[in-house]
Structure formats: structure tokens, C-alpha cells
Design brief:
By secondary structure, the protein is of the alpha+beta class. 53% of the residues lie in helices and 15% in strands. The chain has a two-stranded antiparallel sheet. The longest helix has 24 residues. The radius of gyration is 14 Å and the shape is globular.
Length: 87
């Protein structure tokens, strides 16, 4: 297992990039770290898998602050799912 470069294909690297850009746009300098979590870390991703990211922030966020962003990410996943499954 290579923890320096997780086993992600191009689609999953793009998902990870998009999530990290979103996190940065919301939390900016308050991000202390972002960690790949779950099957993406250990090479168990399938074509329709999502990418799990654990984010640590120096400030608290409320559910009301986070929910619109989660909804946006979920909408994007639903929009892209047929492409990912077919790809």
C-alpha cells in the first residue's frame, strides 16, 4: 500500500480536487487539514464510488452553514453518476 499516492483514477482525483476547492472556498485559512478516508485510501474504489474526505478546521461550523455545500456536492454526484457508471 502506498500512502503517499492513493489509488485514485482520474475521475476520483477530480472529485477530490473539487471537494478540496469547495472546502477551501468555505473555510479558507481555517482549514487545518484534509484527509482522504475510506476505500479511496486503500484502493477499494469502484467506478461509482465516492471519495470520502475528513476535514479538520480551526473554527466551528453550524449545520446551517454546511448544509448548502453538502447539498451542492450531492447534486453534482447525482449529475455525474451516469457518466461515472458508464465510464
Amino acid at each position: 500500500m502506498n500512502l503517499d499516492r492513493p489509488a485514485l483514477d482520474g475521475v476520483h482525483w477530480a472529485q477530490l480536487r473539487d471537494v478540496l476547492l469547495l472546502v477551501d472556498s468555505v473555510l479558507d485559512a481555517d482549514v487545518l487539514g484534509a484527509y482522504l478516508h475510506g476505500s479511496g485510501l486503500f484502493g477499494g474504489l469502484r467506478p461509482a464510488s465516492d471519495v470520502d474526505v475528513f476535514v479538520v478546521s480551526s473554527r466551528r461550523t453550524s449545520a446551517a452553514q454546511v448544509r448548502p455545500h453538502v447539498d451542492h456536492v450531492l447534486a453534482e454526484i447525482r449529475r455525474l453518476a451516469p457518466t461515472v457508471v458508464a465510464g
